Amino acid sequence: MGKAGFPDRKFKTDMKREIDIGLLPLLVDLTRYRSLTRVARKHGKTTSAISKSLAKLKLMLDDELFINTSSGLQPTTYVQSMIQPLEKSLREVNESICKNTFDPLVYNQRIVIAANAMIIELYGVKIYKALIEAMPEIRFALLTWDEDTLLAMEKSEVNVGIHVSIPDVGKNIYSRSLIEDRIVLGMRKHHPAKSFQAAMQYPMVISRSKGWNDFRYHIVDEFSRSGYKINQDVVLDQLSTLFQLLLSTDCISLVPKTSLNDHFRFYELPLPSPFLIPVSFYCKTAYRNDPINLLIYELVKQVIV
Predict the structure, then answer these.
(1) Cβ neighbours for 205, distance < 8 A, ≥ 6 positions apart
(2) Rounded to 10 degrees, what is the CA torsion of 215, 218, 117, 263?
């Protein structure tokens, strides 16, 4: 690999020829749309003008770049190998130069959000709708938070994250509070239990959330310290399955209060203080004041609060 993550490439040794950086966004658009006509329309130019620019790119990069097929322009192996780091670099340059002229209605870059599985199940659709309404031209990815997410955020492969608060994320990652939800004992609306103590006699379903209680169930520890015993009868890592189980059986579960709709009821936990789950917004520290990240924060906060 060459510098900045680009594949090594031997260019013709013509000292008079220089790489015209202004043509590189055209390469990205041609890869995305696979059509000279569509790219010409986007740039407000003629197809002939785009074709001439493509010819310059081919000469400049010493590669055919695209092959005409019945389904459109097919990028060569060289283009496929370098398009992602190129697009990432162009996006960073664009954000650095144009951060004060951000217009969400015409912003058309890819936004990658990584979120806790519970957040995705509860709010994923609403987050998608909010972002698309505010930024109709974006390309959007909502991924499950995993052990590589923070590193991917540092590398600008993930724009922002939504997760329960993590004590130490390092100086390269910025976090900002979104909401504090509290845990309650949830069950179906017509559950036969008439009190918290009575409800605790029914099978308990424990929700496992990646990155939060992969190995330890914090609420179970808190209950133990307060003298209560919780039988971990069933463990699930899919919130939708957990709620289906609660609706169709007499099982109970410790769940965030905001996750319960009118089909459920709950008892407050008899603990010395409420068991709170703080949810935070994460992004690369260097980009914490970028208009796009500030907008995403506000949109997500409106959805989950």
Answers:
(1) 233, 234, 235, 236, 242, 245, 246, 251, 252, 253
(2) 130
Residue 98 in domain: no
* Angle at CA of residue 21, ends 155 and 16, nearest 5°: 130
- Domains identified in the chain, total number: 3
Report the CATH number that the domain containing residue 50 is assigned in CATH: 1.10.10.10
Give the Cα separation of 79 and 77 in Å (integer).
Answer: 6
Q: Cα dist. 116→31, 162, 248 in Å?
A: 32, 6, 26
291 and 263 together in one domain: no
186 with 267, same domain? yes
Residue 161 has pLDDT above 60, yes or no: yes
- Binned at pLDDT 50, 70 and 90, residue 6 comes out as very low
Q: Does 92 fall in a domain?
A: no
pLDDT tens-digit map of 183-206: 899 999 999 999 998 998 898 888
pLDDT tens for each residue of 36-52: 888 888 878 898 989 99
The whole-model pTM stands at 0.58
Q: Are residues 250 and 187 in the same domain?
A: yes
DSSP string for residues in 214-240: SS--HHHHHHHHTT------EEES-HH
Domain range for 128 is 110-178+279-304
